[in-house]
Amino acid sequence: MSTSPVRAAMVPVMRQLRAYFAPMNRTTGTPTIFDPGKYGAFLLDAPPAPWLDLGWVDNFQRLCTTLTEPVRAGVPSTPATQFRGPLDARIEFDFREWGKLQMALACGSEHMNVLASNPNANPQPSGGTPLPAVALLAGSTASEIVLGVGAVNAFSVGDIVAVDADYQQQTGYVGSGISAAYVSDPANVNNDANYIRRVTFNLGRVAQETATSLLLAQPLLGGTPPVGASAQKVIAFVDRDGGSFFQEWSALFVAEEESGGRVCFHYPRLSPTTAIETSMSLNPAAQPRAVKAFQHEENIEITKPISALALHAAFQGMPHVDENDGQTVVCYRSYFPAAMAAVY
Amino acid sequence: MQFTKDSFYMALLERLVSLNPMQTITLDGTTRPAIIVAENELVTSAQPVSDAFYIEWGDAQMVAGQVGDRGLMEMDCLISYHTFGTVQSGVDRGRALAALDMELLSICEPPRTSKRDYTQAPSVDLGTSILWTTPTFGKVSGSDAAKNERLPLGNEGVRLERSASLKVFFFPEVNFL
């Protein structure tokens, strides 16, 4: 028998962890499922649709506070059986890259696109009255926005554009392809025709211009723009402490396989949280819960005084019913053993 | 990486021209701003010219904790210069060196510039910036002194020189999307 304390091929070695998120259908509550049998060995730079690569993350922690409790019987009392208490699982990590999705997920609420505004508009912290939207013409796709001769000149190479439908006074989730906010009363958003473009995830950076259209560097997340969509220039992104909307996404985290074995963590439903409880009890009244202050950004020192800012994010795992056995679960951990590794 | 080197050089050159347009040298028959990237020059046996900043590039590596081809990198940079002073006797060589010190500090601020592709004309903005630390000045050393030189640093020598080191941070030239 080998004298080595572990068998090498059975030790997953990782250097970094990569995050992928996919939108949920908020109207039906349907998550995006990562099927390890179909997609497990995907190239990390080319995740299967609709998973979106959100880059490497640091300080990843999976926190499970689901307790098991014994049922005792007999004299003297001994554990007779066990049951699981309230299901509770959270994760925390730092996004090392900033972008629309990373900010929206770290913030957790409505995430605003600051539309280029009219110079005479009143100042607003999330953007004032915007410049008029430019209507899309037929033939637009997720990568090419057709605006027509002349109209295309409202934009330049390098601009970020928001492409979505006008707000039509509807209530419910808004945003093409990905639910970006929930409107319960049109008056709350000032009946603003631009509201959906203020929150939409359908953004792209103009890489090239033709005589009639904008060619985007990355396709719109929501796919082909809806009929009646318009485009507006985005200057910046804004998130806010507060807001009533909760983002909810499906997530996948992959530990890059350095030694051959890949480990994935799949959360069918994740909802952002902030307060991270450091201790929990089945009976909250019996023991006060210690709450750690949530830090929105992490400073990662490069060399004094230069540091990188990372987006700190925390999520509550939401329940999902596994269709194979009807069990309610929060997270799936999958392991793809290295080739020829021992099975046990 | 070459875009970073070029962008750093061009930033300092443009700032030097703006700060002190008279700070020029004549090299290979051409008069130019007194800032030189050593590795870009013809290999000759000539000594470095005085009152000019010589840029030399050193070690490059990923910043600690960064991995992958999109991580932040750092590269060592050494900028050296020397002077004989502005008068025949050389008695103002200390002042001349101090003026070069201050010029270097000035042209290194702000400690960032956009990274551009200077292989094209006009140059193309590559979308990110490079940044650098404040220069750390090394000791002044003198040379070409009389044979009876006895002072520890040789500052009585007619040639006073100094090197300043800094680190330049940048994202490598890859597709970021």
Describe the overall structure.
The complex is a heterodimer of chains A (about 350) and B (about 180). With about 350 residues, chain A is mostly beta strands. Chain A has three helices and 23 strands. In chain A, the strands form six sheets. In chain A, strands 6, 7, 8, 9, 12, 13 and 14 form a seven-stranded antiparallel beta sheet that branches. A six-stranded antiparallel β-barrel of chain A has the order 1-2-5-20-16-15. Chain A has a two-stranded antiparallel sheet with strand order 3-4. In chain A, a hairpin with a 6-residue loop joins strand 21 (about 320) and strand 22 (about 330). Residues about 280-285 of chain A have low confidence and may be disordered. With about 180 residues, chain B is of the alpha+beta class. The mean pLDDT of chain B is about 85. The interface of A and B includes residues 15, 16, 55, 58 and 218 of A.
